[in-house]
Fold each of these.
Amino acid sequence: MTPTNTINRLLAALVALALVLGGLLAIAEIVLGRLGRPFWFIPRQQWGNWVTRQTWDATLVRLILAGMLLAGLLLLLAGLRRGRPRLLPVASEAPGVQFDVVRRGAEHAVVAAARRTNGVRSASASIGRSKATVRAKTDARSTGDIPQQTSAAITARLADLGLDGLRPRVKVKGKKR
Amino acid sequence: MSTRVNTTNRTVLVILALLLLITSTVGLIIGFGARLTGLALPDKHDPVLSTESLTAANDSPWFWWVIAAGSLVIVLLALRWLLAQFAADRVGHLDLTQNDREGTTTLTAGALSDAVAAEAKTYPGVEDASAHVRDRSGRTLVLALDVAEYADLNAVRSRLEQGVIAHARQALDEPDLPIHIELHPTST
């Protein structure tokens, strides 16, 4: 599971739990109130009086609304953020068979391919839904044709993995003068 | 873990976010006294809930029961959403019974998974393998393979298609059994 999905799952569990507990509390208080029984957890009368005394421009009301706005923005961000996929789909002609390459494994494979390129000292890779970005370092002062060679190596490796659909993007950093 | 749960989570989070954003924005617009053309909003000095409204709600024989019923619906939906976070979609047993009157045939999913993984491990370039059967609107065999850096993935894929995939489908007597294969290239 990707970190994004883990965070969303945790957030979903917390929000769902809050809704369950809040809903049960509301039902319990409503039933008690309708039966003319005293409150269980929420002092209904006091809360009712308090709300009717609050105006829309009260500082506390504005703060509560601002808190709701912030919570809404955070939930929206969590819901819309897709993050990087755990699996990268590979085209398959076999009926009913779906092949995927694990993204982390593909990144390691691409890094290994980049490091085998002449002149590359170290490399790191990050693969998203549409492109594979490789950052390489060289000890040479001038990068020369290292970017082209690295790009070719990466393209070939991605093709080996069946990930030809990904656009390779290479950044090579030379040694400072 | 299910992709469906992840999609549901994102959808529900966005819906709740929009509800929070809309209500809080309208509340803040009223609170700061801003005016929106075409919308008759309360004045910022008005109470959030008027005494008359509260009295009318309390005097109504049905209002609070409707709120309680609505809360119950929310509780049930939220409970289902909560339980979905912990639900496993892995299958323990596979029912291969064709005719109940002639008896039942059950296959332990672990036995199939072990056999599939053991066969896949014998293929050149496959360093490790594990498998499981999941049931998400239909059975799917999921096979996860660690493949060596030197491995020819095309060759591995075609060996899988001719060997382990065909054998698994034959064992379950399901020629169209969906198979999901996760290839994990390892660095040596």
Amino acid sequence: MQQNRWNLRKAIFIAVLAVSVLVTMIFWFFRSGATLDFGGSSIVIIQFVVLAFAIIVVFRRLKSAKQNLPAEDEMSKGILRKGAATSYYVSLYMWLAFMFFEDKIDLERSTLIGAGILGMAVIYALSWVYHSYIRKSHD
Amino acid sequence: MTSRIKELRARDNLTQMDLARKVGVRRETIVFLEKGKYNPSLKLAYDIAQMFGMKIEEVFVF
């Protein structure tokens, strides 16, 4: 029961965070006067992917709380750890590529760092999906 | 490593959800254990064996 309440609180926290990010994102987009060209639309798409990941996490937690099951157990924690390790490894190469092509990419340094951080989030989401659903064994 | 969880669950008339609740894991973990795609920790293996009133080596086959 205590665990369930904690799961519910965590799910609500993630949902509130996701909504705040969405609102900030929309606000920022209209405030900055950005247009929906290739760069602008790809950043919006990446942000939506990250938000979709948060929504999946909230949905899973709420489902577990409803079924009176723990939101996390040793296998799901293992998947999170493996996902984090994989995404860290892949992100290193992404940053290396960013550094290598820095002169060729027509973006401000702060925008580039923002894109890198978003990229890391997407890589983490993808590696979590890979370890959860695609990889055949969870050892 | 293989396990006899599915067989023992059927014997005791338990669903995957029931077993998951009793040992405090997600249902997906039971699914992967039954398919032999996840090796449990010693604690989880012990809890599952206790649940069926058996020893670890009688439930999990190495």
